[in-house]
Amino acid sequence: MSTHLLAVWGALCWRPINAVPTATLVLAFLTWQLADFGITIGYHHLYSHRAFRAKFPVRVVLAAWGSAGFQGSIKWWRLRHRLHHRFTVSSTRRSSRRD
Ligand SMILES: [Zn+2]
């Protein structure tokens, strides 16, 4: 949440938007997308659910991208996510080993 507030604050400071260099906009978009991949693929599917196996370099890249999302450490994210599934998943999925 704080990242989003900082983004809004940054955008307001850079008014008008056409004053922002194109490279900055491209970098911001790429960082946003890579952080999203890091959270979704890395923090969620790899580290929380162990949905797949990955070699060490892939794990490092996904961890780095996920950290760009400023959602806490992998350990903290996994703990919170497992608590989320404990209290929100239906009884049919609760017996699954990966939940
Ligand atoms: Zn999940």
Summarize the structure.
This protein is mostly helical.
Number of distinct beta strands: 0
CA-based gyration radius: 17 Å
Content of β-strand: under 5%
Overall geometry comes to: elongated
Average pLDDT taken over every residue: 85
Ligand inventory: zinc ion
- Compressed to H and E, one letter per element, the order equals HHHHH
Q: Bin the helical content.
A: over 70%
Largest sheet: none
Supply the helix-strand structural class: mainly alpha
Count of distinct structural domains: 1
Unreliable spans are none
- Number of H- or I-type helical stretches: 5
Q: What is the terminal-to-terminal distance?
A: 26 Å
Membrane topology: Multi-pass membrane protein
GO molecular function, one term: iron ion binding
Protein name: Acyl-CoA desaturase
Family: Belongs to the fatty acid desaturase type 1 family.
Keywords, separated by commas or semicolons:
single chain; 99 residues; mainly alpha; 0% strand; elongated; binds zinc ion; stearoyl-CoA 9-desaturase activity; lipid metabolism; Acyl-CoA_DS; oxidoreductase
